Amino acid sequence: MQEQEFLQELKEIDLLQQALAILEWDSQTGMPDSASDYRSEVTSYLYGQYFEKKVGPKISEAITYFEAHPKELSEVGAAAFQLVKEEYELNHAVPNALMTEYSRATSKAHSAWQNARENKDFSLFREALAENIRLTKALIPYWRKDEKTAYDVLLNQYEPNMTTEILDQVFAKVREGILDIRQTLLEKGTEPRVDFLSRKMTEAQQRKFIVKVIQELGYDMERGRLDNTIHPFATGINHRDVRLTTRWNEHDFSMGIFGVIHEAGHGMYEQNIDEKFEYTPAHEGASMGIHESQSLFNEIIVGSNRDFWQKQYPYFQECAEGTFDDITFDEFYKALKRTRASLIRIEADSLTYVLHIIIRYEIEKMIFNGDVTVDELPQIWNEKYEEYLGVHPENDLEGILQDVHWSGGSFGYFPSYALGYMYAAQLYHAMQKDLDVNAVLASDDYSAIKNWLTTHIHRYGASKKPNQLILEATGEPLNPTYLLDYLRTIYFDVYQINE
Amino acid sequence: MQEQEFLQELKEIDLLQQALAILEWDSQTGMPDSASDYRSEVTSYLYGQYFEKKVGPKISEAITYFEAHPKELSEVGAAAFQLVKEEYELNHAVPNALMTEYSRATSKAHSAWQNARENKDFSLFREALAENIRLTKALIPYWRKDEKTAYDVLLNQYEPNMTTEILDQVFAKVREGILDIRQTLLEKGTEPRVDFLSRKMTEAQQRKFIVKVIQELGYDMERGRLDNTIHPFATGINHRDVRLTTRWNEHDFSMGIFGVIHEAGHGMYEQNIDEKFEYTPAHEGASMGIHESQSLFNEIIVGSNRDFWQKQYPYFQECAEGTFDDITFDEFYKALKRTRASLIRIEADSLTYVLHIIIRYEIEKMIFNGDVTVDELPQIWNEKYEEYLGVHPENDLEGILQDVHWSGGSFGYFPSYALGYMYAAQLYHAMQKDLDVNAVLASDDYSAIKNWLTTHIHRYGASKKPNQLILEATGEPLNPTYLLDYLRTIYFDVYQINE
Lengths: 499, 499
Prior knowledge:
- Chain A contains 20 helices and 3 strands.
- By secondary structure, the first copy, chain A, is mainly alpha-helical.
- Chain A has 3 domains: 1-92; 94-143; 147-499, Neurolysin, domain 3 (Orthogonal Bundle), CATH 1.10.1370.
- The first copy, chain A, has a 3-stranded mixed β-sheet with strand order 1-3-2, with helices on both faces.
- In chain A, β2 (234-238) and β3 form a beta hairpin.
- At the A-B interface, α1, α2 and β1 of A face α1, α2 and β1 of B.
């Protein structure tokens, strides 16, 4: 087999994926709701074509051939081959019947989850969740390579080479550090004023502000667009067409503004992957964790930076057409970084967010490496929220039913969000060795930051593993200290604590 | 073969077509321009899949089988089978090499046409056009069934069962009738005042007005949407998702408003085809001419109606927020129907439009049934414009280079537009036997009109031929008298001619 033939097959798979991505984007932004049944007929059919090719004869032929003739592959071909092989090895041993049962179960569980949410009653989801867990446990032996624990197998699907051994240590440190910061803020901090955050800012005013900001940060609007949706996301169709979506709240500008800045981080990553990888599986993010590190770099690092906001505040005030003229910059900045424990993960602030993830990580580990029963989960959930965040869900909707992930069988996904936080802070630390980041964010030209991220992360796409990227970009493996240092600096400043 | 298997194959073809329709809509409404090369890779690939299935083994097997066992087909199956068979018979005899040559030539001709337009120089398009004509002439013997002339073969591809014999008679009468009306207006008419038509009306104001109007006319916005584009169109993805597009000119509200009302006519047709035909080739318009009859019913019949505008004018004034408060209804209405000969077809008014089509029809007939050379065409074009419309193009861009059709090999398409005019007027005449159309348009409830069109036209989709639909809906075959009567009534009123 010629490399060309292998790459052509990958290209056709990618073309189907691009079509599916447009259909998905359309269904979440513009499609009339009433058309959803008809649309799923289209996507199911195309997804079938896509999946058939991914596990088809051309791909297995390529695996056999290039395993024996690795030297016939170019740099791009080799990167693509590695990813194709990994995915093939992951799935080829799984019996078809089990995979079908699993698909059916997750789709049923999604409906059960929705129903349970409407009734705020975990017992309506209980059985379906148990079935998802049972089937995932049945799949793990087929997926397993040399991972030490069952849960490591799941982790690896979202963050290659990540282990519970690493995460246990890292999360222990982060949990302790965050609880410590929270304790200090509580004892010695001064709560900032936040009343003006709910002043009305129209969608058009918010949009005007943030579209200018994300372009300054390096998102290329000529190769993208920004649309409204219910559950915001970014999607890279190809590197010339990378779309952002958001939702707006006219009485909480921070939702739309930080939402767009977050999605623009994902978008910049997709826009800046080296073109040579286009049409191969290397032309995507290295992992969920690395992808989140890019969105969170924008949201948490840039979006928490005092110099950045000092520079942007006059334009923000201008866009708001007088609404914030009586608010000083210092008041404005501090309000953005107020912290408060919440019950709901997606409403959490940057200090408490990772605690929500640690709770989920600990529970998932108990499910797959321990012997907890499904019936015990809501209580465990609530106890951990009490312990780590000091809040108590009034019902299951505010508790264990809040996330979609388990209904779809996505166990092991949650840690990606926390990894994104830690990677972002670690990258920021490394970046400061090359750049005076505060000075750049105080200036008219942010391009040095985007260039640094492109050089060290974006351009490689999935051709390097997350741990390799982080090691090469920062000179050390994952280290949670930088996140803790960063959070401490930001929040001690906002809460006026001098140590 | 079971009917189910045949219908399943048609469904898969239709699903691919739906995906292609979304991709096309997206590329004309929202896609970043810079992504167009990448997008055409996706659409070429999917179009290849689509075409392969359409001429694939399942379809030829179905044709053989159901030709021998027609009684095994249901009503829907039989309607679909008829259309599939016609298309198969049209194309199956064409040698692949010829088809490939033709595709290549038309794609080359499109670039040549664009280049010629930029230089306003027909000689740059001459050779490519000659090649398109040569290859079309080579294809005609393969396409030909029992049509009397070569040009009839082309006509039939857009308007089944239409002949030059019919069109020669019809167009002779229409041409004479329109020239006669124009002569009378010139001699005895009073030109209406039109200066205020260019007053500024913002996109938002225009949109507010017309979106309400098209919903009143029966376009279901819950199963559709309206987006901005450069070359307006309507697209029926499926009957729950039928989208309109338009362009706006803030200093010529009539462009956007009549544009949207026109596209909504196409949209209503697509929304109201009987659901039972969904996923088959019967779930589309009966022909280009019938489709145009629906858009033109909205644009020319409803959109020229004095009672309709009298009812709508206060709301129009309200949407324009004072801009037209000094304009009486009579002044407003008359301005909308001012007529003036133009050089450009797509800028023509409702009285002169059909003359533009007749010119093209006569030239196309000369090309395929006569022995005109390509070099003679620009002069013939200009002479006909002088003769029929009294205007003379200053250059080829204002003349023979204005339309895209010939560059794509779409010879025989133009008459559809004129048929749409005549069908619309004939349907209006028939409708008046059942309804007092003026009274309906003066009322708050237009639904009787939509219901009449759905009963007589929309619901059948392509399951009946255009001539059959017109005969059954109006009790007689195509008759151009109704268009002439209608135009005479409208324009004599506007130009204050009492006969």
